[in-house]
Amino acid sequence: MMTMDVSKTEAAKPGPGQSPQECAGCLKPITERFLLKALDLFWHEDCLKCGCCDCRLGEVGSTLYTKANLILCKRDYLRLFGNTGYCAACSKVIPAFEMVMRARSNVYHLECFACQQCNHRFCVGDRFYLCENKILCEYDYEERLVFANMAYNPPPLSHLKRQIPPVSLPGHLMNGHRPQLPPSNGDLNNNMSGSGQPPPGSMAGQAFQGPGHLKNGPLSLGATS
């Protein structure tokens, strides 16, 4: 294999009695303003092409590859003679001509290069971490560090107690018994029947006064003599 640089230069004007430079591809004179120089030869821009995909090598890069009497672009050279690898995320084959992402010694498909915890796709400028041979975003990496630190250095029990807010129980559950409730109307009736005497200020035992009496005087809630 041989790698050669491709350079684009302005064709020199032939002097008196000189012929234009000849293209190594078509063997015709180069009359255009610009020409390509590769393999120590001169080429028309349209004549220096990849022997497989026919792309113009002056447009796809500044390097060409030659092997087995073929002039190739980088993609086709790697496809024909390059070594394949395996994606560290999906474990599938990566063709030699594909663009890849690298993290240390790991190689990834472009679509597989994402956080292996939350599947976040990285953008230019994003930080990522290689932890236990897994790609992690910054958030998941820091979260893993926090849990790892808690596993190796658990906080004391008193610290945990301070972190847990106290829980207040309802009054009827305190000390395991219900508080004493105020007496109801039924209790008052029972007390009245038990003692035999109405409480002071009550209207028990008074005769009902008809409507005519209500018109003649105000209704009194006091005890009568």
Architecture overview:
This protein has 225 residues and is α+β, with helices and mostly antiparallel strands. Helices cover 23% and strands 20% of the residues. β7 and β8 form a beta hairpin. The protein starts with a strand and ends in a 9-residue tail after the last helix. This is LIM zinc-binding domain-containing protein. Keywords: LIM domain, Metal-binding, Repeat, Zinc. It comes from Phaedon cochleariae (Mustard beetle). One of its GO terms (cellular component) is nucleus.
> How does the major sheet shape up?
3 strands, antiparallel
Strand order of the largest sheet: 1-5-6
Shape: elongated
Q: What's the mean pLDDT score?
A: 74
Beta-strand portion reads: 15-25%
Q: What is the radius of gyration?
A: 49 Å
What percentage of residues falls in helices of 4 or more residues? 10-25%
Order of helices and strands: EEEEHEEHEEEEEEHHHH
Number of helices: 6
State the total count of DSSP E strands: 12
Low-confidence stretches: 186-196, 201-225
- The chain-level structural class is alpha+beta
What is the first-to-last residue Cα distance? Answer: 133 Å
Biased composition (Polar residues): 186-196
GO biological process, one term: positive regulation of transcription by RNA polymerase II
Protein name: LIM zinc-binding domain-containing protein
Region (Disordered): 1-21, 169-225
